[in-house]
Amino acid sequence: MNQRPTILVITSDDSLYPQITDILSDLNLESNLAADCTKGLKQIRERRFDFVLVDSRMKDLPCENLIRRITNKSPSTEILAAKDEEIDAEALISAGADEILNLPLDREEFQTKIKKIKNEREFLESCGLAGKSTELKRIAETVMQVAPTNITVLITGESGTGKELIARAIHQNSPRKQSTFVAANTGALAEGVLESELFGHEKGAFTGAVARRQGLFERADKGTIFLDEVAEIPLATQVKLLRVLEERSFLRVGGTQDVKVDVRVIAATNKDIEQTVRDGAFRDDLYYRLAVVKINIPPLRERTKDIPILVYEFIQKLNQESARRIKGVTDEAMEILLRYHWPGNVRELRNFLESMLVLAPDQMIEADLVRKYVDEKLQAQRQLPVVTGKSVQAAEHELIYQAILSLRQEILNLRKALLSQGELKPEYFVDIEKPWEKEARLKEVLPPQSMDEMEKELIDRTLRETGGNRRKAAKILGIGERTLYRKINKYGLRDLR
Fold first, then answer.
1. What pLDDT score does 494 carry?
2. Residue 174 and residue 224 in contact, taking contact as beta carbons nearer than 8 Å
3. Which domains occur in the chain, in start order?
4. pLDDT of 148-175, one tens digit each?
5. What is the rounded CA–CA span in Å between residue 53 and residue 98?
6. What digits encode the pLDDT tens for the residues 264-280?
7. What DSSP string describes 173-238?
């Protein structure tokens, strides 16, 4: 964040802007005014703002659409929406608002929320994390709390969510940051090699051991060791690892003398390690010793608010590293990226953008390229038997949702074919990519059970099965909570709360 944060206030209320500048006078924010939505969007295109406050009573553009456009143009900007009693707060949050302020403004509440957001952003920057979802902010806060200590941390999450990045953030914000950070992928090492890699060996300990060799724990002395895929460690090695955690000492392979080390241990796994403990494949005493503090990283599909920011950050880095450039992502393409469930998480998103350097060099990433990628991935997932670790119910819902996405693509292809042949007029079709901008007319050309009706039925059933718990419903459906809020509003399902 800039040394002096900036805020843009979009309001046509002559009395609101002076009130806001007065409230923020002691927070050292540079404030700017836009008297209508068009001027506000123009300013956002021309410069970066840390905060934008939107008056939801603006008449020239619906507030939800304005918030979406701000998010598309400046994904990292924190959006505060000021509303009166007639405006639905959940609709604003669903559109992308980060905080809601009630009119008339309360001085203390407004200042408190600005301070909170500033602290959260400072934590994210200190951790090297890109995003602004509630989940990521909580992770950054936890990192900053545990980093100054020597507490052992267990990081859980699906493959590709960035577990090593969190481990490095803990190390970089700790008193050990000047010492070594050692990463060990324990799941990639055979059992006979793992002990030697971790603890070293003495000369002659086994065939080929021609000299004493330091293990990773010795190399990490005074620093931090990161044990990735820790749930894969064999039981015999788990005993030695437990001793290191409890006594800070170990024996090299073939050794007879204790080796003392001062090492902070951070472990990670993409497995349900508690189930692994129940199955007897992982020692419960070692689990409790590792999980003094547990940080769970949600999959990318559950924090879609981070996707536009990650896309922007990755494009910036890739453009710096390559002679080719990606000019950006169209709004239509971004909508598809937000809806895709990203089974490979952040790693898959980066790999996708890297592929765009080859497929779309020196141009904008268009929706057709994203659709092609998504369709190929969904087709591959339908053909391959994959162990997901999900419940039967969750797997069933995900398959149904993927079928809906596939049906949606078939509808788009059908529309394109019919329009190209001149058999139907464009006005008969809803713009599926931007359903809030047109009135649906699919019922005129499609069977009664349209894609929207199928999606509504699936969401309705899931909400009823979860007793109206939107967080659980979103997790089962494999979509973000904000996406679910928008669809609940779209289909009129709000009475299920």
1. 59
2. yes
3. 6-127 (3.40.50.2300), 135-297 (3.40.50.300), 300-383 (1.10.8.60), 392-496 (no CATH)
4. 999 999 999 999 999 999 999 999 999 9
5. 10
6. 999 999 999 999 999 99
7. TSTTTTS-EEEEEGGGS-HHHHHHHHH-B-TTSSTT--S-B--HHHHTTTSEEEEETGGGS-HHHH
